[in-house]
Design goal:
Helix content is about 60%, strand content about 10%. The protein has about 70 residues and is mostly helical.
């Protein structure tokens, strides 16, 4: 069996295009790109240094109710 040649991959690609159509494949690619971009943005937000006040880490707003 071994690895597939370029001709095998071209035939598989042609079958996928015929079955799904180019519009649906374009939409899948766009959705995947948006998901990757969102993931990268979320990772950058997570790396941001948290605020430090009075020796304690503050992760968000805190309201004191007395």
């Amino acid at each position: 069996m071994g690895s597939f040649s370029i001709w095998h991959w071209l035939i598989v690609l042609a079958i996928v295009i015929v079955v799904f159509g180019t519009k649906k494949l374009r939409n899948v690619g766009s959705d995947l790109g948006g998901a990757v971009k969102g993931f990268k943005d979320a990772m950058k937000e997570g790396e941001a240094a948290p605020k430090v006040e009075g020796g304690r880490t503050v992760d968000g707003e805190v309201s004191d109710k007395h």
